[in-house]
Amino acid sequence: MKVLITDEIADSGLLPLNEDPRIQIDKKLGLSVPELHKTIGDYEAIITRSGTLVDKALLDHAHKLKIVARAGVGIDNVDVDAASSKGIIVVNAPYGNVNSAAEHTMAIMLSLCRNVPVANSSLKSGDWQRAPFTGRELKGKTVGIIGLGKVGGRVARRCRAFEADVITYDPYISEKRADDFGVKLLPLEDIIRFSDIITVHTPLNEETRDLLSTDHFEGMQDGVIIINCARGGIINEAAMLEALESGKSSGAAFDVWSEEPPKSDVLKKLIAQPNMLVTPHLGANTFEAQKNVAVDVSKEIVNYVDGRPLTNAVNIPRFDPDLMEHMRPFMKLISIMGDFISQLAPPNPNKITFTYNGKLARFDCAPLGVCGLAALLNHCSEQEVNMVNASLIARGMGIEVESIRSTETGSFSSLITLTLDSPEGSRTIAGTLFEGIPKIVKMRKFAIDFCPEEHMLVINYLDRPGLIGKIGTILGEAKVNIGNMSLGRQEKAGEAMVVFSVDSPVDEETLRKVSDAVSAKFIKAVHLSQV
Fold first, then answer.
1. Would you call 216 a catalytic residue per the annotation?
2. Which is the catalytic residue, given 231, 318, 427, 455?
3. For this structure, is 260 an active site residue?
4. If DSSP codes are grouped into helix, strand and coil, which group holds residue 484?
């Protein structure tokens, strides 16, 4: 795999890639947009920070691209929808710079409250003044935190260590999570009304853009302090400037900007405002964070090359990290099932149903469904299908996808059933894990029991004495060795389904001979690439 690096990345964090002989790294910094468009077509992966815009125009030139790795948490410089439509995985490093961002938030908050920058400049210029730089303590202040995620949670703990009263607004967390951090969960209007200091820690999206604007500032306490170490644009910068100029806000500290580097008149005035403390997007700029995010995205690229699930893919449904090890064998199982049934079922499916029974049904099974859907549709679509674009492709093909969960269990502690409906009827396959090994336990109406292998032969016929012997003889004459056999039937001398695992592919001529010998209603050689 060829990997292009377009922004400055810590070399020490690239060790997982440098140690892998399958991966070639090219670092090309400072490319112009036309140069990048010309270059990207040769690469299967790109690693960026915030300095590279991965938009639709770039992706249209990226004919080989499989994965975009953002070495950091923010992905506002990546057109995720455009990448998803092309089946390109987008991964980020949401945890590598978490501590760095939280510490920088505290650094600029404390520096602003204690007038550190202006006092430093004053003393260095030769003055000895103390009274103009009288500061404020955090102790006893009410700190409002908007967004109690990985960074916001760390800021909450640090503010409480300074004996501040911490309140938070986050519509996506539970009361229990707020209790775990020792903070009060309140509506946004209460954060605005009661806070002495407000700090934001949310991603930038349509929901959070201009989250704090002129109307919100009007409802704040006089002298409120505003901190933004998250993303530029969450706080309306024109409104922030107006609040500083009017005295509504006694000070603000920003590390991030809606335009980087800042060029507009509003941003230049805001940065120059005397009560504004500013830094040039340094939240993730520690040696530790730079190494951490590089290591995280490097490991994700290696996982991709190895065919392992990706932990931090932003456009793939994924399990809670604590569940990943438990669910990984089920992901393999459902991929095999999807691959298997797609080679047996009639064409033009109009509905695919995933049913999860038993212990498995207690968990969110959406990643399993997408995994199985991708394996299935790869045999139905000219476009390469993966977990990124499987749902989009199914929708475009007019296929309805349904997921059913039930904790009711029969003979198996966990069971996955995949059903395809088409104009020619339904096809069903069910599987489970036995000591972590995938097993197929049902095909159509037949109870059956086999472990999927690379080469298999599936035959449906009316059971009569001597037919298994005939099949074995014909396969033997074709030099095809039988590994295992599983037979399913509902009654003696009735319809039967037999599945052979074989050591080599069965050619068309041998299939014809077997079909004629047993008067097969259905016969198919199956090749499974994922076992």
1. no
2. 231
3. yes
4. strand
Cα-to-chain-centroid distance, residue 361: 21
Closest by CA to 489, choosing from 436, 455, 442, is 442
Per-residue confidence in pLDDT tens, the chain, 531 aa: 999 999 999 899 999 999 999 999 999 999 999 999 999 999 999 999 888 999 999 999 999 999 999 998 778 899 988 998 888 999 998 888 889 999 999 999 999 999 999 999 999 999 999 999 999 999 999 999 999 988 999 999 999 999 999 999 988 777 888 888 999 999 999 999 999 999 999 888 778 899 999 999 999 999 999 999 999 999 999 999 999 999 999 999 999 999 989 999 999 999 999 999 999 999 988 999 889 999 999 999 998 998 777 878 888 776 666 677 788 899 999 999 999 998 988 877 889 999 999 999 988 888 899 999 989 988 766 566 777 778 878 887 788 999 999 988 778 999 999 999 988 888 999 999 998 899 999 998 899 999 999 999 999 999 889 999 999 999 999 999 999 999 998 788 789 999 999 999 999 999 999 999 999 999 999 999 877
167: alpha, beta or left, given left = phi > 0 and alpha = psi -120 to 50? beta
- pTM recorded for the entire structure: 0.61
Give all domains of the chain, ordered by start, each with its CATH number.
Answer: 2-96+289-306 (3.40.50.720), 98-278 (3.40.50.720), 321-527 (3.30.1330.90)
- Please pick, among 260, 453, 454, 495, the residue that the annotation labels catalytic: 260
* Residue from 49, 70, 154, 281 carrying the catalytic annotation: 281
C-alpha 227/C-alpha 230 separation (Å) is: 9
- Catalytic site residue 231? yes
Question: Token pair for residue 344?
Answer: 């047996």
Give the DSSP H/E element, type plus range, for residue 421. Answer: strand 414-422
Amino acid at 340: F
